[in-house]
Amino acid sequence: MCGISGIVHSENIGRNLFNSIRNLEYRGYDSxxxxxxxxxxxxxxxxxxxxxxxxxxxxxxxxxxxxxIAHTRWATHxxxxxxxxxxxxxxxxxxxxxxxxxxxxxxxxxxxxxGQGVVFESLTDTEVFVNLLEESYAEFNDxxxxxLAALAQIEGSFSIVMLxxxxxxHLYCVKKESPLLLGLGDGCNYVGSDLNAFLEYTRQAIVLDxxxxxxxxxxxxxxxxxxxxxxxxxTVLQIDWDLETSKKGGFSHYMLKEIFDEPQTLRxxxxxxxxxxxxxxxxxxxxxxxxxxxVGTTYYVASISQYYFSNLAxxxxxxxxxxxxxxxxxxxxxxxxxLSQSGETYDTKTSLEYAQKKxxxxxxxVNVMGSTISMMVDQVIMQGSGPEICxxxxxxxxxxxxxxxxxxxxxxxxxxxxxxKIYEGHQTDLEGFSTLVExxxxxxxxxxxxxxxxxxxxxxxxxxxxxxxxxxxTESALKMKEVTYQHAEGMPAGFLKHGTLxxxxxxxxxxxxxxxxxQKNLHDRTLIAMEQVKTxxxxxxxxxxxxxxxxxxxxxxxxQLPRVSKLCAPLLQMIIAQMFSYYAALDLGRNIDxxxxxxxxxxxx
Length: 605
Ligand code: F6R
Hints:
Layout: E1 3-8, H1 14-23, E2 31-38, E3 41-48, H2 51-58, E4 67-73, E5 88-89, E6 95-103, H3 106-115, H4 125-140, H5 143-152, E7 156-164, E8 167-176, E9 181-184, E10 189-192, E11 204-207, E12 212-216, E13 221-225, E14 237-238, H6 254-260, H7 262-271, H8 274-286, E15 290-294, H9 297-313, E16 319-321, E17 335-340, H10 346-357, E18 361-366, H11 372-376, E19 379-382, H12 395-414, H13 420-455, E20 460-465, H14 469-484, E21 487-492, E22 509-513, H15 520-535, E23 539-545, H16 549-554, E24 557-561, H17 569-588
Parallel strand pairs: 15-16, 15-17, 17-18, 18-19, 20-21, 20-22, 22-23, 23-24
Antiparallel strand pairs: 1-4, 1-10, 2-3, 2-4, 5-6, 6-7, 7-8, 8-12, 9-10, 9-11, 11-14, 12-13
Bound molecules: fructose -6-phosphate.
């Protein structure tokens, strides 16, 4: 949430700095700005709106200088105004900072500074810190000391980058519970709140740990511990993300492009070495209790996984939303398996900390290398899905689900739930799935588009499924809400008759996730619910598999998918539902890649 970028170079970096916050725009897009040092003075430009909108007015990309900082914001403290946008300047115009996170004691510092005559332009906690810097510098007349002295006065979780007219050669950066990474270039260095800040310029990265600060120069960097000032040696990571995967590549939106990335994402997920999958399966097998955890889409991924663990390994593990995880009385030795695309989600991170304090073992499936969650757990699986730029998660969620199926399958094997032959059959199904997805995406997209178009006016949806198709329905309903702003409620199909049926009338559209007919029990139950809606005059739409005449007869519109294994069938429906939401949002003219009020990675509670 919110994107930070900084560059120290020997050449003009205006354009590059602007590009870097454009690449971070998915982290926040209600306002943005840049500050650069030009001939000893700070040039600050910022405004409300998306990056291109602000650039049209402020000409950010034409700013001059070889050192600068930039920020794209998702408002937390203070509304969306030009004053509240970052960077913030000190009253004497000698310091500029960009900041992510929260300074929890900012109010009392603000009052103290106001008492000394400091006039604040914004309502942000950030402006308080930049004025603390001015005050500290007046005392120490040394920039590093002033930075540390100001930091010693603030509480909360934050990452900050400071640029000062007193030092034209260095940026001063600090990380505490909010991500910050360095990028090491050739004759230039970068800092960013995630890899996308500098992936276009370098693949060498250093992940900062909590309580570390950096003095970052064009050719040099010094990383020290805040507490002791001791120098820290860090590992330089080689980032293997393919740059092209973070580009739109001819698609009109990242969301569509990322849906079309899914075959490749599945192949990557299949390439994750079996030992990594087995290690997690063994940890689960050895633990007295296991909990699956995520929030938003990743909670639904956990919920889908719950069914796979049950079916393949005959084990029931509760799925919990990270923001409600504190209800669990975790005990020493228990296992918590978390899912997080960004690896930075506050709710998931704090719940993992809670579990670790109680002595639980932790593991996670994460997409972003070097992210906080990936570093804090005992065991991590890097899903390798490549950058997911659209705020709405598609390919990352799909890959996580696929990886969880692999874990459930290994656990089943460990517990001798099936023969080697059946195990191999499942493996073959998983291996062949990406090719089928490729075919389905190409063949179905026009058809899905037409149905989405004909129903995009619908304001209220029920998304219904039985068994594992129930969490598939809830995840798909979240996709629909996020990207179209229309109301969609996910529900077990069998639940309908216990109350919600009273809402049924022609304008209420029900999207059913129909299992293959060979899953007779689930199929029958779904069909009963479809009939219940149809009989009462509701509109029934079905995502189903070819040859399912009963389901076709019950639905007024049907999306028919090729037959696929029982293991992969729910995933195929999940993909189609992503596409369905995309096309509905397209028809409604929504801001698809950056839906209103949302940000990609939610690092606040
Ligand atoms: C929905 C979506 C969010 C995230 C949630 C957790 O499309 O993307 O609901 O799933 O904010 O984020 P991560 O996976 O980064 O922990």
